[in-house]
Design goal:
The chain is of the alpha+beta class. It contains three helices and four strands; from the N terminus they run αββαββα. Strand 3 and strand 4 form a beta hairpin. The longest helix has 13 residues. It starts with 5 loop residues before the first helix and ends with a helix.
């Protein structure tokens, strides 16, 4: 009998805390870029920067089990206040 693949259990939990920032590369361009990080502080910094310049498309957080939390409105609200 083959031994169990131990790497598989790690693979399933790898994306538990991933933040994804999607932005337009240029103000009027259709081309988008993506920044991915597990560090909330860095991801929020990038999202705020792109929101301030009007290029933020989406800011999401992976919460596990294939579910994503949309944080775009929170970041855009912060950018409007500053």
């Amino acid at each position: 009998m083959k031994p169990a693949n131990r790497h598989r259990s790690r693979e399933l939990t790898y994306n538990d805390r991933v933040f994804v920032v999607r932005y337009r590369r240029h103000r009027d361009a259709r081309e988008t870029g993506e920044f991915t990080s597990s560090d909330r502080r860095r991801a929020c910094h990038h999202a705020r920067r792109h929101a301030a310049s009007g290029r933020l498309v989406a800011f999401t957080r992976h919460v596990g089990s294939g579910r994503w939390e949309d944080l775009t409105a929170e970041v855009r609200g912060e950018a409007d206040l500053s």
